[in-house]
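REVIEWER CHECKLIST
Item 1: Sequence provided? yes
Item 2: Single chain? yes
Item 3: Sequence as submitted:
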Amino acid sequence: MIVPVILAGGTGSRLWPLSRELYPKQLIALVNQNTMLQDTALRTAGIPGSGAPLVVCNEEHRFMVAEQMRQTGVNPAVVLLEPFGRNTAPAVAIAALEAITDGQNPILLILPADHAIADIAAFHRAVEAARSYAEAGKIVMFGVLPKGPEIGYGYIRADRRDPDADVYPVAAFVEKPDRSTAVQYLESGDYFWNSGIFMFTAERYLAELEKFEPAMLTSCRAAHDGSVRDMDFSRLSKEAFETCPTNSVDYAVMEKTTDAMVVPIDAGWSDVGSWSALWEIGAQDESGNVLRGDVLVHESKGCFISAESRLVASVGVEDHIIVETDDAVLVARKDCVQDVKSIVSQLKSRNRQETVTHRKVYRPWGSYQCVDSEERFQVKRISVTPGATLSLQMHHHRAEHWIVVKGTARITRGEEAVILSENQSAYIPLGVTHRLENPGVIPLELIEVQSGSYLGEDDIVRFEDVYGRQA
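Item 4: Structure as written out by the authors:
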């Protein structure tokens, strides 16, 4: 049996300002109406002999991941929660340990959740070609047929002494080359882009990790053995996982094993690793522009322009990336987009929240968006999904006033419980225990006005929470 393993960690900093730490690119619809995670889950559904996927993600993203998977109808066997990121090698190790807990040794198909693949049938054919090699104990990776002298990808050199084979031994791994070297790779026909997609049995991967990264495997075993089941999630032991070294599958295993094989794949693959990559796979108009949202252009060509919250207009702009969100705007030359991460680094050094979250923040019960704020007051727009319940909580430093603008709210305030409908309001004094629920069948929308000496999100004392969160 093939068990897809969807790696849904990472922050996608090169796609800032759309991708943020608490809302990274795999959770965003970048290519079509589905998010990257949803597209990844859906492309596993047609693989012959495949079971329910295992999903590995950061604990902060768990409810968004679970909800997006639910919307696809692809139900994961479990969502494995990392307390913090340790790169792909430990994530795959945890998935392998989970997959063999019942004495099984399935084939694992390792899939990053933030890649785009246009030709699903070609992808499935490549998986089928790799199956027998994985069953025989080989460590298989998928090499993308290069479309040009790309300098942003690592390369795999294949041993193509048998030119008619459909799978080749790996002769060498090559880091990102300069352009002249990439041209030589392309002309030779022996090189493929490293897709980051792998296939092997669970036991074989763990055996290779035992050989090359024993300390990593020890930490992963302890973290998995100490995991706790929570609803549809499995929480790894934070103390054990904290000791785990950080490394990728490529460096930890692939570049050291003697049994690496590469399967060529020509399926319209992209890792969507930058705004220029998104422009390349986007629907371009007659001037080579990819336009998203409320955008007007005049004498502009070769641009990617995305508007999230307002009108964006360009005049006489060529080969530029313009991305607008409700709290940030990025303008960059298309050939400089790899340097976006330097802006993210500057923002982090200044403790700016624009790297962490958008103004609209998602929660397991819905979302909230800051509308206005000054010293001692803050206004939020809160949306609660039907049937959802916020935690029973209290604040030490702020009072709250709730005004319902759509739907019905059930409010617990101290010892009383009241039902509010549109245009009705409730006041929650400082220090009073309270809870907000949506008992209706349509989303509840309300305006919250906070006032007090401190308005941070960490001023929450939770007494009960259906989502297992703590203050």
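Item 5: Key structural point noted by reviewer: Residues 284-344 form one domain.
Item 6: Recommendation: ____
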